[in-house]
Amino acid sequence: MIFWQLFLSFFRIGIFSFGGGYATIPLIEKEIIVAHHWLTLPQFYQVVAVAGMTPGPVGINCATFVGYRVGGVLGSIVATIAVVLPSIIIVSALYYILKKYLAKGEESVTVFLSAMAPVVLSMVLTAAISIAREGISDFRAILIALAAFILATATKLNILYILGGAGLAGILLYK
């Protein structure tokens, strides 16, 4: 039963995950915390933090971690397959559709894809605000978040260095 619930939840997340991993966080949060109570909010944000630091897409990493937490190794396999399966199906179908219409020079396809950008941006901002509300709890956390934001947007510094530096700053400031 739990494996079927994991599959359905992450398949649903996969269907509506436009814009990549961080855009999926609000969807994952609703399924995992609100609908099924598989994790608490602090546990979920820990999963998101670890998923962001490990190689691979954040949404898939979240599925793997949550699946493992809920159903062990088999749960992680089920959740991971479920979250990527809709993308495989949708991309395969879109490939054939776009190939047909782009070859004809259909401008409506280009307009549709351009219109998706604001939707993706709103989903990413929703995830950022949700994480900020729970994860940035005091002045030290605000300083770390601002420093990371400035470094990420104003420099070409590798994000892994920023994450490592933020972790070290957290250790020093919260010790």
Largest sheet properties = none
Q: On the 0-100 scale, what is the average pLDDT?
A: 86
Number of helices: 7
Span between N and C termini?
Answer: 43 Å
What percentage of the residues does DSSP assign to strands (E)?
Answer: under 5%
What is the structure about, briefly put?
The protein has 175 residues and is mainly alpha-helical.
Describe this structure in words.
It is a single chain. By secondary structure, the chain is an all-alpha fold. 85% of the residues lie in helices and 0% in strands. The chain has seven helices and no strands. 24% of the residues are buried.
Features:
single chain, 175 residues, mainly alpha, 0% strand
List the helices and strands and how they pair.
Layout: H1 2-15, H2 21-35, H3 41-53, H4 58-103, H5 107-135, H6 139-154, H7 159-174
Helix pairs in contact: 1-2, 1-4, 2-4, 2-5, 3-4, 6-7
